[in-house]
Automatic annotation (TrEMBL):
Record's keyword terms, sorted: Transferase
PANTHER family, A to Z: ARGININE-TRNA-PROTEIN TRANSFERASE 1, ARGINYL-TRNA--PROTEIN TRANSFERASE 1
Superkingdom, taxonomy of origin: Eukaryota
MF terms (GO), sorted A to Z: arginyl-tRNA--protein transferase activity
Domain N-end rule aminoacyl transferase C-terminal: 66-160
Gene this chain is encoded by: Ate1
Coiled-coil ranges per UniProt: none
GO cellular component: cytoplasm
Organism: Origma solitaria
A Pfam family per the record: ATE_C
Protein name stated in the entry: ATE1 transferase
Annotated InterPro entries: N-end_Aminoacyl_Trfase (IPR030700), N-end_Aminoacyl_Trfase_C (IPR007472)
Amino acid sequence: LKVRVVRSSPPSSQFKATFQESYQVYKRYQMVIHKDPPDKPTINQVRLVPVSFEDPQFKSSFNQSASLFAKYQMSVHKDTPSDCGENEFTRFLCDSPLEAEHGSNGPECGYGSFHQQYWLDGKIIAVGVIDILPYCVSSVYLYYDPDFSFLSLGVYSALR
């Protein structure tokens, strides 16, 4: 048995070289031990989108994200439709005091507020609202399609 410690942040060359193999071990573990279905979202189905109405990916997915937010709020938190409309969604999860910033030593995506979108079959099934800062990642909120609650996307998102 050989054990290696490899730097994950910033990703070392060893981490990058073994990422897919490590991910497959993780996925098999999740399926065997935690009974995750094989179609649980994969890393290729997660998009990190800056929270900015000037960003084309954010703009093109805004209506789908807002609708999913309303569905989640009404199903999980029993909100009324007027409590979770587009204005409430924008105020709560899109308006951020953080300004986007790209530092030479920072992550490729830069710093700021992001929507981490989980896609399955061309549809957003969960969104993790996160702030990426110089010394931490802060999970602001997560909402998901209640029809996919069996995937434990909140747990998956926290681990990711």
